[in-house]
Amino acid sequence: MEVMKKHLLIIALLTLTVTINAQSIFGAKAGLNVSSLTKVDNVSARVRPLIGFYGIYQITDIYALQAEILYSWQGANCNIEQELGNKYAKVSIDYLKIPVLFKYNVWDKLSVDAGISFNLLMSAKESYGSDSYGIKGLNGLDISVPLSVSYVLWSKVDLSMRYDISLSDMNWGSRRGIYNTNLSISVGYRF
């Protein structure tokens, strides 16, 4: 799995390098995730940050490709029933996300985007009050389909709202069928 992570990171860096050197735009972005987990009882969304870099290669006036490298803090809030009673847990799942998006410019400053994202698991833990435990055995690669709407607010500032549809089961212990859900809102600054 470590070799796969390194290969995906190299591919992402090469993609961004090609994008940066061509007729392109590149920048940095930051935003908020509203994330949760499917098929887990008593779960609610958790708001956490995201940061990263992106490059846009303009193919034509209407079509473009966008590659990104994002560090995305995700997770959920859970109320877990155990033998000793209910416990409130915060689940933190952090990913290095490498999305590649196809952009269709609907109007001059508005685009709809779709693509694929390779999300490398960086950290996973459960926290109960001040106690924190690592989550072992999770799927190290989450593949998702990002769908987004982007708007260029000013020449150097853009806004984006994205929903990631996870295709990969997390394989959390004996639990199967648990997927990430994530809605993100971000602001990008173009260099």
Automatic annotation (TrEMBL):
Record domain Outer membrane protein beta-barrel: where: 22-170
Alphabetical list of Pfam families matching this protein: OMP_b-brl_2
Name of the protein in its database record: Outer membrane protein beta-barrel domain-containing protein
Species of the source: Mucinivorans hirudinis
